[in-house]
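Q: Convert this sequence to structure tokens.
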Amino acid sequence: MADFVALFLTDLVLGLLLGCVLAVIAHGLNIIWGVAKVVNVAHGEFIMLGAYGAYFLYLYGGFNPLLSVPIDAAIGLVVGMGFYFGFLYRELRGKESMGLQSELVTLVSTFGLSLVIVNIAQSIWEHPVGILWSPGAAQVGPVPVPFGGLYVAVVSVALIALTDLFLTRTYLGNAIRAYTQDIPATQLMGINPTVVAAVGIGMGFSVTMAGGALLTVWLPTGIDPTKIGILYAPISFVIVVLGGPGKMWGSLVGGLTIGLIINVGQLFLGGSIALATAVAVLTLIPILLFRPEGILR
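A:
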């Protein structure tokens, strides 16, 4: 019984730490979805690019995943703004809201982009790689707390808090929020909707790639172009739906929920079944049926 309790507490702590990382990789999607109402099907591929960015910074510069975060974030900002002007600007310019046709165009565009990225990645990187970074652990009672996971969890929550502060306490952030609610009114206030949308989507990509860098702590040998997008994109979508699209702290609530279900659930169901349960039975189906606006109002 004591061994089971210790194992349960360990999985509980690790689930919370994992949930923070899952929250931040989903947070980038949440920002994009909340700003431009664009469902980015290529989200998983940009998580992968963030992970590879951290890997190469580690390989050639000796950067640990935490030091890679600001560099990955800066690259993601540039990539996100390029993504907006390359894939979304022509379809969204001059429109007062996202219609069905625009949604279909962006879905097809991002789906095509995801196929291109994953196929190029597979042709370049044939074998999984990883970052062997382990700064140690602390024993708290019966629970070993890895410092790497703890540091990453703190940075993940800090990224969500910073984006929330930016969107609520700065002029540009308030302009982005206004754009999401009423584009014509935003223009009447003298705000350029193109700049606002580009910055908002760039911020979403910035957080996504930073999250990919943080995720490498949990993937010491598992940065694989054939698996990252397939696994973490659906998890990100579930987290966003669970917390509520456009709700910044909803990402953290959804991420912690999924992390706990995956880690604690494997005690009773096994790893793969716990993951499937987290995505389908205990989160997506009930939320879509009974709480489509997410946990947070």
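The beta strands are 137-140, 143-146.
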